[in-house]
UniProtKB/TrEMBL annotation:
Residues 136-155 have a biased composition (Basic and acidic residues). GO terms for cellular component: cytosol. Its main location: cytoplasm. GO terms for molecular function: RNA binding. This is SsrA-binding protein. One of its GO terms (biological process) is trans-translation. It comes from the Bacteria. CDD domains: SmpB. Residues 135-155 are annotated as: Disordered. Keywords: Cytoplasm, RNA-binding. Belongs to the SmpB family. The keyword Calcium does not apply. The keyword ATP-binding does not apply.
Amino acid sequence: MSKQSTAANNIAQNKRARHDYFIEDTYEAGIVLQGWEVKALRAGRISLVDSYVLLKDGEAFLLGSNITPLLSTSTHYVPEATRTRKLLLNKRELNRLIGAVQQKGYTCLALSFYWKNGLAKCQIGLAKGKQLHDKRHSEKERDWQREKQRIFRNN
């Protein structure tokens, strides 16, 4: 991500995705949201744990993300927290994603939500699943990096 996407601009991250998948490529997508969803995003009330991207009829949709409505949401409107939301990508990116997902083992996941120039953006990733031994190797590598930092700091 660019320098625009700092911690202050970050809304939510899907940490589970980086643990369970190898992220091959990332894309930035706009999201079609309703008014109450934008207010809930500003309050940070989103969960991306089980979310994924469905590519259907030349369009991309975000499924499984949970945006919890605020208590101040209008009483005459019943908000749906886990509704399907449309993602906005250009045609070239969509064609590249559709071609890759049709290959064996690739999937498309939501990695993070962030603000960019006042608009909510979703970072989606083209991912390939990790085996159990790959997860163990990643964990060992992360532990070794942490231990190496401790050793350098203490010396």
